[in-house]
Prior knowledge:
The protein contains 1 helix and 2 strands. It is mainly alpha-helical and 82 residues long. The chain has a two-stranded antiparallel ribbon. A hairpin with a 5-residue loop joins strand 1 (60-62) and strand 2 (68-70). 0% of the residues are buried. The model has no long low-confidence stretch (mean pLDDT 83).
Amino acid sequence: MKAVDKSPGRIQSVKIFFRIMKIVLTITFLSLLLLPLSCQKKQQEQQIQAELNKKGPPLTLKDMNGTDVSLADFVGKVVVID
């Protein structure tokens, strides 16, 4: 059988190696967990941009005075419907 080196310097080196490997594996694992979240956020941003550039549906409502107001009357303006 081959003799195993159990000197304090060797043991310390092995401990340091395993600590470094633990850190590297933890960082790798966390990166793999966060990657899908990053991709999902990009997809959501693209969907929001697509929705922002769409025209609103034809819509006519009555204002507080009973007058018909069409969404087409406000082309190019921001409209909040409450």
